[in-house]
Amino acid sequence: MKFLLMVYSDDALLDALPPGEFDTRMHACITHADELRAEGRLLDAQQLEAPATAKSVRTRLGKTVVLDGPFAETKEYLAGFNLVEADSEEEAIRMAAELPWAQTGCIEVRALRDFEAVRRRVGA
Residue limits of the YCII-related domain (predicted)? Predict the structure, then answer.
């Protein structure tokens, strides 16, 4: 089963880390990701730019509106993701707990839907 581990960060908690701790955690995270990738369990991982660089696009009644930044006011923001292969939701949760960012934010674990099944169902 494929799961998306969405990494949410809180700048207040990240800024409170001792000097050099962010880089130490990032190094550990990258090293661990390399190990998971070598095992075939990490399919992809990416960081996102800061929320201030985002654009929110909505189309209503045929009119498209583009706004700067994320729509919701929140302390935590989506900072990146890991697409993993896991045998169960429990394994995916264990993988999420291993990420150092669970200590300074939140890791949302969500199963991927079988998109090919959806494609077949709708005849696309």
Answer: 1-115
**Among candidate residues 91, 84, 112, 110, the one with its CA nearest the CA of residue 8:** 110
Residue that is written with structure tokens 């969405």 in the block: 6
Whole-model pTM?
0.85
Backbone angles phi, psi at 92, to 5 degrees: -60, -40
Q: How many CA atoms lie within 13 A of 31 on its CB side?
A: 7
User: Which residues are CB-neighbours of 46 under 8 A, at least 6 positions away?
Assistant: 80, 81
Torsion angles phi and psi, residue 87, rounded to 5: -75, -20
